Amino acid sequence: MALETIFDYLAVHLRERPDAPVYLHDGGALPFRDFQHKGAKLGGALKSFGIAPGDRVAMVMQDSPELAVSLLAITGIGGIAVPCNTALSHTDLTHVLSQSGARVVIISVEHVETLSLIRAHVPNVETVITTSEKKPAGFLSFAEFLDAGKPAALGAKEGPAFLVYTSGSTGRPKGALHYHSDIPFIIEAIGRKVYEITRLRFRKQFCIPDRVRCALHPPVRTPNAGRHRASLRGVSPDGFLRRSGRVQRHS
């Protein structure tokens, strides 16, 4: 089976190890089966809300299962995910949300106040969905939005998947489009070059000893994995792509 998109990787896991964890977090683990089901439901909810292929959906979220599910859902229905750096200033975040043309923004509880303050300056944002249990007026609940969704087929094969912005340290943040065909390249580049993973199928769960991690790549632990953990912080997937000529600047 050719692994051409992230959904091909997911299909392998769903077939061979559906109850294994794709995401470990403080509250437990999210297994592949639930990951796919929640992604399909969120994708269906976004489609019913009018999100079509090519539409941008931004995320201002801390690392969490909801972030992983959102990425899967948005890209799975052909939308373009715009993951935002949570350390951006209000000015830069306003620029990213405006310049990206995001119609929907999904936020975690930590960023409710920020979105409340800048929302009036981003008229293109039609809807804000929050994981917070206490949602402000005009915001939608992530849990309620997810529950209302009818599962959609996930599996976009072509076109852009992500619009990733720079940190803005040398000026306004700039967007770079990453295509569905780029994602397996990132997986292979980081898996093979950083973690020295050489086998595609699981023999045992690989888990980086940090608070949370998402692991769609089917890895196995290698003797040198720990040695490379610190160096991963300096590795940019965008850098891998730029060196290979696979990044398209967004203007």
From the alpha carbons, calculate the radius of gyration and give it in angstroms: 18 Å
Query: Helical content, roughly?
Result: 25-40%
* CATH class term: Alpha Beta
Query: Uncertain segments of ≥5 residues (pLDDT<50)?
Result: 200-247
Distance between the termini: 36 Å
CATH architecture: 3-Layer(aba) Sandwich
Number of strands: 11
What are the secondary-structure elements, in order, as H or E?
HEEHEHEHEHEEHEEHEHHE
Shape verdict = globular
What is the overall number of helices?
9
Number of domains: 1
Q: In CATH terms, what is the fold-level topology?
A: Rossmann fold
What share of residues are in beta strands?
A: 15-25%
What is the residue-mean pLDDT, rounded to a whole number? 80
Largest β-sheet summary: 5 strands, parallel
The CATH H-level superfamily is ANL, N-terminal domain
